[in-house]
């Protein structure tokens, strides 16, 4: 166990002005507070906070952070109190220790809603002072190093939590070395066989290749010196988790990996970075598409470097990172390189240069807490932001937008502004019209084309990659659905007032909202459209003296033909198909990408038609089911990627076959409305395969119609014709 003077010496190496008395007091206090407590390994418990402090000295952190590390378990595990720590060590250190105490027992792999709430607490705890996060990461690193002493039933949970939350947080804070060690330790616990296999193969390759790393280091350094560039060259093999991740990502075996070696070239200036890059590219052949300039466009965590891959000595594919020593410090320590405070007592001073961009990301994440996201949406947004690497794109005016890998112009639009995303109808990538579903690449210039008449389709949620875009699409979709219900409810209310001979005004409904327990007239109309409020209740709220007709009076009026036939909820109707419509069925499904004689069918509750982007889902023993890509039912297969098949329509073989689709029609409940709807479908050559009718209210009913059409254009033409009918209020296609 590290002695008191050894800890002081570790700090003094990088901070000659350290407050030795403060460190000594904290060491003695923590050792006495933990007393005879033991860890699961049998070591004195005090060895843990001492090792955490040692890790933080490697990051060259200030005295207050080192002291907080020594004390971080005292409030939770001993009789110490915040008041006592504040009296002995000051307010700032006491606040840091209290923040660490609050997040110590957060369970970040529990049920999703609870996990989201705990992640909120973690981020809120580190929002005011990033040093809380630095101590927490060091605490987790030491716990992972000693994971073998933890009870077996807890090891996987701790390792998974590390891989899900703490390693990505370290990466976002720019602390790459800590991230890699956390990932490897978690990987070794969660996938011991894979870890052992990779480390064995790397060891065998090392013996086979001999001192290849040293040879490349020497040759590269000599070449740079011949060109007048003084450089330090460091080479190393890739880490096991990084190798495993690449094998998984690219679906390749170990033998197919060609870039197991990475080299860092450290020079004295930015100018020398680009000179060294020129030397490397002149000496060895570059691998196309592998050059990245993070000096001119730094990553959000402040990382700056030039990346390139060349076919170097021995025909080895070699990854190189070229940067200055200052950039190396940021790359190694990340946000910790900025966390240098002037006042050793713990009062935070000014950052040396500017607030870390990584810390700015953290603050931005905290701001999202005030946007009213549900726990699940917040968790999704934060995890997406944590896990994805970045691509950098530009607006036409040169504004830099950082996005996750695989991001689309939809994500770009919402990153610019929510209103831009909500009104996006198209885009140009590098001056060329492109689909909104295109995958963006580094350096793309993206121009979003907007229209005020546009509202984002709900299917965008499955296309968007960023949590911000997905959440915005959900909000817009909810608002659009609410507006549709409100529009329907307004029509229902107007007809109800007309039927009873009472004048209808929106102001009158607005004044009656307190009696209806709603905040606005719009809320009342939406509730009527959803069937939550009866129109009689609204009329009575606006006209308290009005008396609704008795049931027998309603029956007499219906029998006399006055009013409309009221359908009961759940009625199933069968009717004769109009002349001209055909019941021709599909004999064979023309799909490419399916091998063998497996039975193929369309998804229930909506089917698919040519023109839809489609996917096949394999069900062992049953065959293949074809879904449109926007089908909500596909969410049920997200955890089984092996069942997904890449399929597409075989247009050449379509002939005149028909395909299933489902639409929902909301129409006025009056004589002849059903005939008009069936006629519109028949006139366009569509075939009605099934129909259900549900009473929405006394004035409107809803029809769920299964139709057979030739393709998506045919279906859209039928929908357009239906919308043009006076009796029809709304038409929409459904999938699943």
Automatic annotation (TrEMBL):
**CDD domains recorded:** ACT_RelA-SpoT, HDc, NT_Rel-Spo_like, TGS_RSH
Segments forming domain TGS: 389-450
Q: GO: which molecular function terms? A: GTP diphosphokinase activity
Question: HD domain location, by residue?
Answer: 45-144
> What's the Enzyme Commission number for this chain?
2.7.6.5
SUPFAM superfamilies reported in the protein's UniProt record: ACT-like (SSF55021), HD-domain/PDEase-like (SSF109604), Nucleotidyltransferase (SSF81301), TGS-like (SSF81271)
Keywords in alphabetical order: GTP-binding, Nucleotide-binding, Transferase
Fetch the PANTHER family from UniProt: BIFUNCTIONAL (P)PPGPP SYNTHASE_HYDROLASE SPOT (PTHR21262:SF36), GUANOSINE-3',5'-BIS DIPHOSPHATE 3'-PYROPHOSPHOHYDROLASE (PTHR21262)
In the record, the note on similarity to other proteins reads: Belongs to the relA/spoT family.
Q: What is this protein called?
A: GTP pyrophosphokinase rsh
